[in-house]
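Appendix C reproduces, verbatim, an entry submitted by the partner laboratory led by Prof. M.T., so that reviewers can inspect both the input and the predicted structure.
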Amino acid sequence: MTAVQSGPPASPPEGRYGSGDRRFDRDADARADRKLRRLALVLGVLLAAGIGWYGYRSIADSPVSAQVVAFKPVSDQAVEIHLEVHKDAGSTVVCTLRSEDADHNEVGRKDVRLSQHGTQVDTVVTVRTTSRGTTGELVGCSTASS
């Protein structure tokens, strides 16, 4: 047997579930959702713009690019490194090269000054080593100050 209550349903305790006007609560929730979406959109656009600006500045500020094309140990005391550099015509560039042994210890380092007038320079550099070098690496290049 079940007891059936007649009459209007009992209302929840005052203030426990928000105001009694549910339509007002839905409108306020919708407005808050729209504000949060707009805020998230603005922050997302600002973040994307900041990342784009940082990427552009890091590429645009570097007028020199270089890469090791190949390297070859020629003896226990030397490694030949084929270096390709792209730079502004007429500028002088300093590139730092290094060699490591099989245990990843640095065994040779050399700064190379490139002052050729072209925009692309291909050169083979010999780096002297203290023991057999197994790698030829480019540490970095920068425009030389006059």
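The first helix runs from residue 22 to 60. Additional entries are available on request from the coordinating office.
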